[in-house]
Amino acid sequence: MSRSQKVEGLLFDLGGVLLNIDFNLAFQTWKKWTLLPVEELQSRFKMDEAYEKHERGEIEASQYFDHLRGVLELEATDSDIALGWNAIFVDEIEETLNYISKVRRELPCFAFTNSNRAHQSYWYNKYPRVVNSFDKIFVSSDLGFRKPERRSFEAISNATGISLGAMLFFDDMEENVSGARESGMRAVCVKNHTDVKHALVEIGVI
Q1: In the chain, fewer beta carbons within 10 Å around the N or the C end?
Q2: CA proximity to 155, closest of 171, 138, 172
Q3: What is the rounded CA–CA span in Å between residue 134 and residue 11?
Q4: What's the angle, vertex CA 37, arms to CA 32 and CA 39, rounded to 5?
Q5: Measured between alpha carbons, how far is 66 from 64 in angstroms, rounded to an integer?
Q6: What is the pTM of this model?
Q7: Are 179 and 149 in contact (CB under 8 A)?
Q8: DSSP readout, 14-66?
């Protein structure tokens, strides 16, 4: 990481950084409402245009679920589909939460998640410790932009008053890390919680 500018704020992804996610749990749930085998569900499910529109808040959950109903050949209600949709959340990543509780004494901490309103309602209620770990959580479906779009990072910079160059970003997806860096942020690709720890040690906050 470049040390040319002092870090004034930390920005964390949620899924893969603060929360363990497993999409296979969705497929295992949905298999009861389709004749397709789980392997075919996995093959057909894509983070496609409808998925991205859902994350930008451009379409509602009912519209996205109807899309899934067609792609995955689900004979299921919206409630049935939502059951699998929300099953992907496994548990909190305790170690990273502990790091954040320490560094918040030194720096403001924010979260930025590519998420939709159905998921947001679920994790907001299920994981209060995660929600309460941040000064603010930015959600793509509220912003109208999603990672790795430059506009998403610029919107967060404007909202926090922290310049892009003074923000350190943590995400588990390389494309989001690359997008953040291209926008002028420093960013860390997180494979496990030790990547977060090492970066925080490097900037001297733990």
Answers
A1: N
A2: 138
A3: 9
A4: 125
A5: 5
A6: 0.95
A7: yes
A8: SBTTTEEE-THHHHHHHGGG-SS-HHHHHHH----HHHHHHHTTSS-HHHHHH
